[in-house]
Amino acid sequence: MSRAAVLERTGEPLVLDTLTVDKPGPREVLIRTAACGLCHSDLHFIDGAYPHALPCVPGHEAAGVVLEVGSEVRTVKAGDHVVTCLSAFCGHCEFCVTGRMALCLGGETRRSPQQPPRLRRGDGPVHQMLNLSALAETMLVHEHACVAIDRDMPLDRAAVIGCAVTTGAGAVFNAARLVPGETVAVIGCGGVGLAAINAARIAGAGRIVAADPQPEKRALAEVLGATDTVDALSPTAAEEIVALTKGGVDHAIEAVGRPESAALAVKALRRGGTATILGMMPLDCKVGLSAMDLLSGKRLQGAIMGMNRFPVDLPRLVDFYMRGLLDLDTLVAERIPLAQVNEGFDRLRAGHQARSVVVFG
């Protein structure tokens, strides 16, 4: 049995309930959840902007301890400390074998309709959001949805690596492939954007401009490595970034999910610069380049989950934290119990802090 936060209907608060978790299948892992970060991506489903089968358990940014593994699991064992990631991968499709694991659709990592559900309440199934459903005391996931980490790593900070840091840092290291000395603008200083700023500092960016409408988030950005900040809602934000960097940035990373912030990312680029879009845009949204942008050699790309290769990337990010390079302590704004999950999501909607982390006893 597992206490969990259940989304019954979109637009309504999550309901705390006790669910039955099935036994691990041959390639599945049962995890005692230690901590789960609250991510804005969850809100897209909770508020109904993105469709999902209901009822379901949200949460996808988590860390915990392995309780039990299936008979064919080879990558983790009972007692391992793990971080989960929604980029569950099959390991043998075209995307996996060409090193683009984040693009794997991961169909084989989910149970088929003919199999019993991983989660149920009474006789009815409870759907698993993004292969994880981490806002629960226990998770049952495919072995390719988690990776073992250093046991000395604090699990409340390890949790935010599972999405925010993997996405933000991955945009810098994997998608943008930032070269030391290049300039960066990060649009949006939530968990993902702040992680991108921190990663840009680690990568040796020459100048890092943080754009966000909230002064408190701009202050956090400076702690994490931003050399300059601007109000993202200012009508002159793009011109300010161009002036600060003497012609525009080499890389602009959008970490909000708004068409206006994507447009700002493109406007802030220098000739030949690249805009990387990380935020979950409205499903009917289109983002593009003008004719002059194309003539200027500007590029626009998506980078789902930072184009991570999480079995390799996550342990490296843990090592960055352990060596004092990656600042997760500043990223975590508060630690709350599961009973306060709705209040945590309300604060996330208000946009005044980086990451709330649900900590399980």
What this model shows, in words?
The chain contains eleven helices and 19 strands. It has 361 residues and is an alpha/beta fold. The chain folds into two domains: 212 residues, Quinone Oxidoreductase, Chain A, domain 1, CATH 3.90.180.10; 137 residues, 3-Layer(aba) Sandwich (Rossmann fold), CATH 3.40.50.720. Strands 3, 5, 6, 10, 11, 18 and 19 form a seven-stranded mixed beta sheet that branches. Strands 14-13-12-15-16-17 form a six-stranded parallel beta sheet, sandwiched between helices. Strands 1-2-7-8 form a four-stranded antiparallel beta sheet, with no helix packed on it. The model has no long low-confidence stretch (mean pLDDT 96).
Task: Give structural attributes.
11 helices, single chain, Rossmann fold, seven-stranded mixed β-sheet, 29% helix, six-stranded parallel β-sheet, Quinone Oxidoreductase, Chain A, domain 1, alpha/beta, 361 residues
